[in-house]
Amino acid sequence: MNLIADFDVHYQNDSATAACVTFQNWTDSAPVAEYIFDVCPIEPYHSGIFYERELPCLVALIERYNLQPQIIVVDGYVWLDENKIGLGGHLYKYLGG
User: Fold this and answer.
1) 87-94 and 51-65 helices cross at what angle (nearest 10)?
2) How far is CA 11 from CA 41, 58, 76, in A?
3) Which residues of 19-36 are buried (b: 16+ CB within 10 A; e: fewer)?
4) Residue 1 has pLDDT above 80, yes or no
5) pLDDT at 26 over 90
6) How much is the pTM?
7) How far is the C-alpha of 77 from the C-alpha of 55, rounded, in Å?
8) E-strand stretches of 1-97
9) CB under 8 Å to 10, separation ≥6 — which residues?
């Protein structure tokens, strides 16, 4: 089954809730499944290195539920500039490309 996964993280003080909704087609009106995982502690926010805060939350959710989607949607850049990768790029590297 082809699977598209949409991820996001909500932060509150020193904890976060990572969430994922999966679906098969871009036009689906309902998800295949929904996943939520609480992460604590989390890294503080630092401008320009957002991935250090968000990536561990996404990885924890992926590993907890053994998610293996073919397409991943994240609220973050793959490239910040020509020589610096962002959250999407770090997740891509973590997953082995």
Assistant:
1) 40
2) 11, 13, 15
3) bbbbbeeeeeeeeeeebe
4) no
5) yes
6) 0.90
7) 12
8) 4-12, 15-23, 33-39, 71-73, 79-81, 84-85
9) 16, 17, 19
Q: Give the tens place of pLDDT for each residue, 40-59.
A: 999 998 888 889 999 999 99
What is the distance between the alpha carbons of residues 92 and 62, in angstroms, rounded to a whole number?
A: 13
Residue 36 corresponds to which amino acid? I
Q: Check the CA dihedral 95-54-85-5 and report its sign.
A: positive
Count the Cβ atoms, other than its own, within 10 Å of residue 57.
Answer: 25
- 3-state secondary structure at position 26: coil
**Region 86-94: what's the mean pLDDT?**
92
